[in-house]
Specification:
globular; single chain; 14 helices
Length: about 325
């Protein structure tokens, strides 16, 4: 019967196998394993992401740059982008510097307030989310799926609708004041919605804590249980096992959770608008929103965005370096 297989080559005893060119040999080895692909195959998987990055990030970012370094229409007070970098004018940044650091600078407190609110809200998110994620990972058992669905439930409701619900709860005669007065914590209604920093901070925590919980859950779920069992077998208590094993191994998850929660907070503006609406609690996001809505201030909005990006670049670089170092240590 005819066969398509090539005849086997015959060699004299002691004769070495003929050497093939490197690429050809590697390709034949991969083909025999049933896993050969051309060199461009796997990199091609990144093409949709690269197209998305260019179209939806780099191009809009260049537009923001062109507006920030551009001009303002003297008649209609609209921003006029300048596309040629050789003609860019930094006067918007000089104006922003004067408004932040100059005499009577009124934008400086908003920057400080933003960092203070975000730091406090991120710390609270971590304190609340870590025990939740730890419990779901270690002790939820068969209820883990149900609890994960419950953790994702806030994403089913619009963020703005959730904040509007809290507006009703925090009114002077709302449920929060009624409960706190009933248990004796307050003697009279607290003006939660009258420009209170604590209200804005708690609003940020409420809005972004699901991201922290999911990031921590993903990290804690990957902790090798055998390491915990080994620590217990060596005589470590539950507390020392958590401090010496679980917490260090979840460091990357903590960093990831802080990044995914704090970065959106820096650009948030509607939490303050809905729960405060007072200039005393304005954040940088509110400054950008107000500048966009004001005639002739589009360039200032673009400059504010670029300054915030520059300020946030440092923690992002530190996070990338920490992640790369952890990957190298894991590969040893």
């Amino acid at each position: 019967m005819a066969t398509s297989e090539a005849p086997a080559t015959t060699r004299e005893p002691g004769q070495a196998e003929p050497k093939l060119p490197h690429r050809r040999g590697a390709r034949r080895a991969s083909a025999r394993a049933g896993a050969w692909h051309p060199r461009w195959f796997w990199p091609s998987f990144a093409v949709p992401g690269m197209v998305w990055l260019v179209v939806l990030f780099l191009l809009p970012f260049y537009v923001v740059l062109s507006i920030a370094f551009g001009a303002v229409d003297p008649l209609f007070r609209t921003p006029v982008p300048v596309w040629n970098p050789a003609q860019w004018n930094p006067f918007q940044f000089e104006l922003l510097y004067d408004r932040v650091f100059g005499p009577g600078g009124f934008l400086g407190p908003a920057f400080l307030r933003t960092f203070a609110y975000v730091a406090a809200a991120s710390a609270l998110c971590l304190l609340v989310a870590y025990p939740v994620a730890y419990y779901v990972t270690r002790y939820a058992g068969r209820r883990k799926g149900l609890l994960l669905v419950a953790l994702l439930a806030p994403f089913w409701v619009s963020y703005m609708m959730r904040m509007l619900a809290w507006v009703n709860l925090l009114e002077a005669d709302g449920m929060v004041n009624n409960v706190l007065e009933a248990v004796g914590i307050l003697d009279e209604p607290f003006p939660w919605l009258a420009g209170q920093p604590v209200t804005v901070t708690l609003g940020l925590v409420y809005g972004y804590i699901p991201y922290m919980v999911l990031a921590l859950y993903a990290g804690l779920d990957r902790v090798d249980q055998r390491l915990l069992e080994a620590a217990r077998d060596l005589g470590a208590s539950r507390r020392r096992t958590f401090v010496l094993v679980t917490l260090p191994l979840s460091r990357q998850a903590i960093l990831a959770g802080l990044v995914v929660t704090s970065l959106p907070m820096f650009g948030d503006y509607f939490t303050n608008d809905l729960l405060s609406g007072s200039p005393r609690t304005s954040m940088v996001g509110n400054l950008v929103n107000d500048a966009i809505a004001s005639p002739g201030q589009g360039g200032q909005a673009a400059a504010l965005v670029l300054v915030m990006m520059a300020l946030l670049a440092l923690p992002m670089v530190l996070y990338i370096r920490a992640t790369a170092r952890a990957s190298r240590e894991a590969g040893r």
